[in-house]
Amino acid sequence: MNLDIFVMNGYGVYVWSAFAFSFLVCFILFVKTKRTLKKLENEFKKEAMSLSDEKVSALKNKKVAQEILNTQQKAH
Amino acid sequence: MMFKFLYPSHLFSFLNKGISIISAIIIPFLFLSLIFALLISPQDYIQGDTVRIMYVHVPAAWMTLMCFGMISFLCILTFLFKTKNTILLYKSIAPIGLSLSLIAIITGSLWGEPTWGTYWVWDARLTSMLVLMFFYLIFIFSYKFISNQNLSLKVCTGISVIGLINLFIIKYSVNIWPTLHQTESIKIIGRTTVDSSMLLPLSMMLLVFFLYCALIFLMKYKSEVIRIKKKGLKKI
After folding, report:
1. Residue B99 C-alpha, separation from nearest chain A C-alpha, in angstroms
2. Which of A74, B26, B54, B148 is most buried by its number of CB atoms within 10 A?
3. In B90-160, where do the E strands start and end?
């Protein structure tokens, strides 16, 4: 097996560490952001569903609220 | 009214579309860029394979500078025109800039050891990049922990304006105080000294970082809008 790609003439440890660290940081930020977004969408939906019919119909006229609820429906 | 295009109601419909498009293209593009960066691109005649660290270090450094520049612009805009929607924009950009500044510092350090023989020196470029990371930290703490919105905006604007001076220090530090960090190799105006065989993977990785920043920004902005709309539910 050709290990040149991993060893990189002795510099592999620096190169792979740099790439691994970069992707780890990016991955952590992505997961954290996605979790927060999902949590907020769920909470919004829960609170919107607990409103009275009158308030729900008022909510349906609001563009952004509708978009959030539609995203939730697509996700489920 | 002047900045009506920045209203969440205008931007929100583009968020889902933007997130879907970027999510679909970023992974294949990342793999392609990694193949170029780690396999196809040649070694440097002096630095050998360590030059490959450039493909994460340089895009991260450029993007973190761009993020702070945008934050400063948005803060000044918010301060002058009292446009509350721009607050959501800079709040969404700051964590991305902080992460990228951390990547730029750590990968630079990993590049420094085999090239200079040390992980860290108090060189002007390295120190000013570290200062930028602290500016990001103070900026994030300011909008998170100062509950008075007016005071928070004033502090954030102050930090971003001082930070903007630091951006110029970062840019010109290698020319004014040259020590270990090399001078600019890639110039918008003037001769670029990086070979095209390295410039292509570098451009590809830069695009990957840009797409990543755009994706996180859209997700964070969407979260900020939902947070506000959630508070608004109680007022209906």
Report:
1. 7
2. B54
3. none
